[in-house]
Amino acid sequence: MLKTILGRLGQGILVLLVLYSLTFILVRTLPGDPFMEEKAIPEHVKEKKKAAYGLNDDLPTQYLNNLGKILKGDFGYSTMMTGRDVSEIIKHSFPVSFQLGIAAMIIAMLIGIPAGIISAARKNTLIDFSTMAIAMIGICLPSFVIGPILATWIGQSMKLLPAAGWDGFFSSSIILPAVTLGLITGAYLSRLTRAGMLDILGQDFIRTAQAKGLKEKSILFKHALKGGMIPAVAYLGPAFAGTISGSIIIEQIFHIPGMGQQFIKAINKQDPFLIQGCVLLYGSLIVIANLVTDIVQVYLNPRLRKS
User: Fold this and answer.
1) Bridge partner list, 77
2) Domain boundaries, given as residue ranges, for the chain
3) What is the pTM of this model?
């Protein structure tokens, strides 16, 4: 187990280094500069601002200096919000996106896992076909289509829930954006759960249990569920990180003050340090989520523990 964790951590560090390098190159090669929109600013003042942020140095020097600061936990100062530390901006914005991602994953698991188990237990029946058809519709409909529909129909027309704004995790304002994010993840999760359960239900030890006269409920939950959940668990880690990063669009639709708002503003204003901080944060989430997923898979699959 320790060898697996250390190996995954090494891979994660390499991934983050590559991600940092690509982000650094892409941001620095964009046309213009972070101060190009300021009106009637003298050239010497602009040069002083660039020097203050270290943007006058050659690219190799900027690359190494920024990397050294990041390794110390310093992401620099935002050029868009003068005087504000990138870490401070992330500290205030990320919890909102994280809470939204948690709520979306809870909804996804509450919908997807039971739907997959029921479909597998009722294979090739009307219940199975209809459940998987709904899941396919959920996969095909992107969040930027579902979000406005829910906001307009439930929020504005029926006035059952807030269509915009944010009042915290335990408020009704989280329901519509969380459902929008969770439906698509839940649709994928239901299909993966069904496939995993069907694979296990076709094994010899399940047929032996059926021959012994064990009840269907006991076979499903005591014998098949642990192994059948392996594909779903493998998906949950990246899905959670993807849900948080994918909330960028949802935060725009429902006017939620999360990381999505900051990321979009940073791109529009060409803020290199805030863009870099957001990208590395999302990358770190994916690395951590994959590591947790690998550990859970080792626990669920005895063959992985032996290997």
Assistant:
1) 85
2) 93-270
3) 0.81
Q: List, for residues 208-257, the tens digit of each pLDDT value.
A: 887 888 888 888 888 788 788 888 888 887 788 778 776 778 888 888 88
Residue 242 and residue 296: Cα distance in Å, rounded? 18
Structure tokens at 258: 């999360």
Provide the total of helices (H) and of strands (E) in the chain, helices listed first: 14, 0
Contact by Cβ (8 Å): 182, 200: no
How many whole angstroms separate alpha carbon 216 and alpha carbon 207? 11
Query: What confidence score (pLDDT) does residue 16 get?
Result: 92
Helix axis angle for 59-71 and 272-300, nearest 10°, is: 50
Q: Domain 93-270: which topology?
A: MetI-like fold (1.10.3720)
Contact 82, 279 (CB under 8 A): no
The residues, any chain, with a CB within 8 Å of residue 172's CB and separated by 6 or more, are 161, 162
Nearest Cα residue to 143 out of 104, 106, 117, 111: 104
H helical segments located in 163-229: 175-201, 204-211, 216-218, 225-228
CB-CB contact of 107 with 186 (8 Å): yes
CA separation for the pair 272, 53 (Å, rounded):
10
CB 69 within 8 A of CB 76: yes
Helix axes of 86-121 and 230-253: crossing angle, nearest 10 degrees? 130
129-137 LR contacts (CB < 8 Å, sep 24+): 131/190, 132/190, 132/191, 132/194, 134/187, 135/186, 135/187, 135/188, 135/190, 135/191, 136/187, 136/191, 137/187
